[in-house]
Amino acid sequence: MALPLRWSLAAIGVACFVLGIIGALVPGMPTTIFLLLGSFFVTRSCPWIEDRMLAIPLLRPYATFIRSKEPMSRKARITALSMMWTSIVISSIVLGFAGKLTPLVGGFAALLGIVGTVSILMFRRQLAE
Question: d(Cα 53, Cα 31) in Å, to the nearest integer?
């Protein structure tokens, strides 16, 4: 991989980790997605950066989830799906009352909800033996 590309991926990864740290401290801002993206980018550029970032005490609980190979529990799937769809519905209601919910925005939110649902259902699922 070319050096400029590696540095670019590393910079994007570190920026995602910084956003993840901010998300761990600021209510309402996501954490896990930024840590997953950060891991994705730095693993492809400088894996040692991922080790350093996930060694930060604030991020250690997420590191166990990110690095785990265990199937996602049914309870975790239900919680993730419930939180995601609750957020989508509340956001749609707020946008509707504000007069900003157009068919395009509503359709896009529903499409993203479907993609998120499929992703959660497929993420580290238990395979039949």
Answer: 14
DSSP string, 49-95: HHHHHHTSGGGHHHHHHHH--SPPPHHHHHHHHHHHHHHHHHHHHHH
What's the token pair of residue 120?
């959660």
Most confident listed range (10-14, 39-43, 113-117): 10-14
Distance CA 92, CA 105 (A): 9
Quick one: tokens of 80?
Answer: 């993730």
Of the candidates 24, 48, 50, 29, the one whose C-alpha atom is nearest the C-alpha of residue 39 is 50
pLDDT digits (tens, 9 = 90+) for 68-120: 777 878 888 888 888 888 888 988 999 999 999 999 999 988 998 898 888 77
